[in-house]
Design a protein that fits this description.
With 347 residues, this protein is of the alpha/beta class. The protein has 13 helices and 12 strands. The protein is globular. Bound molecules: S-adenosylmethionine and iron/sulfur cluster (2 copies). The site of one iron/sulfur cluster has 12 residues, from loops. Its EC number is 4.1.99.22. It catalyses: GTP + AH2 + S-adenosyl-L-methionine = (8S)-3',8-cyclo-7,8-dihydroguanosine 5'-triphosphate + 5'-deoxyadenosine + L-methionine + A + H(+). Keywords: 4Fe-4S, GTP-binding, Iron, Iron-sulfur, Lyase, Metal-binding, Molybdenum cofactor biosynthesis, Nucleotide-binding, S-adenosyl-L-methionine.
Length: 347
């Protein structure tokens, strides 16, 4: 691991005020979604009259690809495509194919609700995608339907996962756990995906945006989830794959089958956070809990040259002091501030 850290440092072009390099870029390709998960886009706030971005407000593929090149010049090596629901963006595999050709990008992944995955898995793989994360919060149709706010059933998502596996994509499953909502799904999810051979990651419910009515007592701490699973299926901890990995990794004792826990609330990982986020309309955010982005779309459309845009990005990153999750519980001012919604900048 030592060698890898040193190697990474060698490529770094820009550091923030807490000595964190710019390494990852999450790109939201749409703010639209066919689900209305209560913790992200509750139906009563994002109903039929909600005004999503117009097509010309979204970054075009050409603009995204240009930005990927510029971010790559500044040290970004990993890209995650997200949304909204990214598979709603027409021709997404074409975008992936282009990003895949950017030399210093060594990893592209996609986060999806899985509803359209069965249709697109093959094309995504052909376009060069290697990894996919599917969000799934329950295996119970009724609970899942309530959680996704649209009565969408589990079957098509599981089919999408099977199709992605058949296509040769590496798969992770993300489950957001909420106290009193889907705790009873932890063990069925762990059992099902252990059997299938896919990594499930249990995520602590977060206070992203201002719409999801978050309270600390809605969070199920990862420690409790580890203990619950360990009682039935003994676990042992694993070393992180790299510095700054967000999930704590475990494996089922006596096997190589992995499972992960993302403790964004109880064990914040801001000190190693190297992620920048680009919203669907081209604003740059340096934290999931940011209130204001920096508009890059106007720079692109006003003809600012590559060096000018890179200079802008570097300035933003160099001033970055974000550590929201680390101060969440001690700073109530931070807790109540206006924040960008999750579907704008992706997870
Ligand atoms: N629509 C895609 C999906 O659901 O996978 C991509 C975008 S979604 C905003 C990205 C991830 O954020 C999903 O895994 C979702 O479960 C997670 N997420 C959304 N709101 C959350 C919250 N309040 N706390 C924790 N995770 C959340
Ligand atoms: Fe849509 Fe994903 Fe948000 Fe659910 S979490 S509403 S699927 S963007
Ligand atoms: Fe990174 Fe902000 Fe999350 Fe901390 S709270 S890990 S700085 S995105």
């Amino acid at each position: 691991m030592e060698t890898r850290v040193i190697l990474h440092m060698a490529y770094t072009k820009v550091w923030d005020r807490l000595s964190r390099p710019l390494r990852d870029l999450r790109i939201s390709v749409t703010d639209k979604c066919n689900f209305r998960c209560r913790y992200c886009m509750p139906e009563e706030l994002f109903g039929t009259d909600y005004k999503f971005l117009d097509r010309n407000q979204l970054l075009s593929f050409q603009e995204i690809i240009r930005l990927v090149h510029l971010f790559a010049d500044l040290g970004v090596e990993k890209i995650r495509i997200t949304g909204g629901e990214p598979l709603l963006r027409p021709n997404l595999p074409q975008l992936i194919q282009h990003i895949n050709q950017v030399q210093s990008i060594r990893d592209i992944s996609l986060t999806t609700n899985g509803s359209l995955l069965a249709k697109y898995a093959g094309e995504l793989k052909e376009a060069g995608l290697k990894r996919i994360t599917v969000s799934l919060d329950s295996l119970d149709d009724e609970r899942f339907g309530q959680m996704n706010g649209k009565g969408f059933r589990v079957g098509p998502v599981l089919q999408g996962i099977d199709e992605a596996a058949r296509a040769g994509l590496q798969i992770k499953i993300n489950m957001v756990v909420q106290n009193g909502i889907n705790e009873q799904d932890i063990l069925p999810m762990a059992r099902y995906f252990r059997e299938k051979g896919h990594i499930v990651r249990f995520i602590e419910f977060m206070d992203v945006g201002n719409s999801n009515g978050w309270r600390l007592n809605h969070v199920v701490p990862s420690k409790k989830i580890v203990e619950l699973i360990h009682r039935e299926m003994p676990l042992e901890p694993l070393e992180p794959n790299y510095v700054g990995e967000v999930a704590s990794r475990y494996r089922y004792l006596g096997s190589n089958q992995e499972i992960g826990f993302i403790s964004s609330v109880t064990q914040a990982f801001c000190s190693t956070c190297t992620r920048a986020r680009l919203s669907a309309e081209g604003s740059l955010y340096t934290c999931l809990f940011g209130a204001h982005g920096t508009d890059l779309r106007t720079l692109l459309r006003e003809g600012v040259d590559d060096d000018g845009i890179k200079e802008h990005i570097m300035t933003v990153w160099k001033h970055r002091v974000d550590r929201y999750s680390e101060v969440r519980l001690s700073n109530t001012l931070e807790l109540n501030k206006k924040k960008v919604e999750m579907f704008h900048i992706g997870g």
